[in-house]
Amino acid sequence: MDDILAEQAADLLQRHARGDLDREGVVEKLASSDPRLGLLAGLLSRQSVESETETVTDLQAQLANANQLAAEAGQLAEGLRVEFDGLVQDVGGLRARLDDLAAALGACPGCWGDDSSCGWCRGRGAPGALPPDPDAFRRLVRPALQRRADVRPYAQPGESVIYD
Ligand SMILES: [Zn+2]
Fold it and tell me: What pTM value is reported for the model?
C-alpha cells in the first residue's frame, strides 16, 4: 500500500468513525481505489457481520435462558406464596382454637402465664387465673373431665368436678 492509498484508507476510517460513512461505503470506496483492497475489506466486513450475527445469536440465547429462569422463578414464587397463604390460614385457625381453649381454662390467651413480660397478664395468666368462659368450658373441658372416672358427672356450680 503506497502513501496515497494509506492516506485514503485513514481518511475513510476517520469518516467511518465519525459516522459519516457506513461500512458498505468504506468497502465501496476501497474497492474503487484498488480492487484488491475492496476484496479484502469486503471479506473482513463479512467476517465482522458474521461475528456480530454470532454475538446476536448468543445474546438471544442468553435472553431466552434468562426468560426461562425468570419464568421458573415466577412459578417458584407463586408456589411459595400459595404455601405461605396456607400456613397463614393454618396459624390463624390454630390461634383461634388456642384462644378458645385458653378461655375455657381461664388462662391468658397471650402467654398462658409463661411470659413475665406479657402485656395482658405479666406472667400471672396460668390456667385457672381467670374465670373460665362457661361456653368454652362446656364445649372443651367438661367432655374430657367426664371421661375420667373420678369426675362428678353432675357437679353443681362452685363444686369441684373432680372428686377429692
Ligand atoms: Zn399472658
Answer: 0.53
